[in-house]
């Protein structure tokens, strides 16, 4: 059986925290206007989401080289800094949200005349998953995003202005209150399935994305036929979200290469799920480009 390309976490998980940043690259190590590893004429993949993107050898750059249009960064607020890691043991002061994501994205948008991918006018999503101290962490995220507001999607006084990059805040739910109180912000909120069933649901201008753990709603893991009731449920969830102008993402879907993963991904495409979640960048790129072909 084929094996997914190793992520940074798989490579360094047994190392001490002191060397957790060994594989990090400087923020501007990539030439901002280039798309390393992409074939000329290949368009970006609007459904491709890099789960725990920072665990790859080259955070952000590896995902962009495969055409991904959504990347995920987990952050901890530590001493006023936003450090990128999955677990506290992996924290490294050199691996910040600014150095791994915001600065490289800004350099690329400048080089590509206003977009992450040259000529691609859809926003690229930066999913920021807050791991601790949600309200305080969000306020620091907001402060840092303001420095890059020229390239970001923005909500201001009831209106949304799309930008080259759309930050979406996930994780610690206590970030929601300070976000809802803002009349001007440069990030949006990652909702849950409960938000779809709310009596007075928040608008897409606040919650443009609905994310959920696949295993909390579905028993099917790709082996055998998709139960009819579960398929109907999936299509109903997506239809409801799309009717409100919201996108849909599931995490914890099967991610080992093989027929089961392909079967689940095929059902997600058929249901028009907006973001397919993976750690296997090359595998999802092959799947989506083959499907498009």
TrEMBL record:
CDD domains: PI-PLCc_GDPD_SF_unchar3. Pfam families: GDPD_2. The keyword Signal applies. Keywords: Signal. Coiled coil: none annotated. Residues 1-29 form the signal peptide. PANTHER family: ALTERED INHERITANCE OF MITOCHONDRIA PROTEIN 6. This is Altered inheritance of mitochondria protein 6.
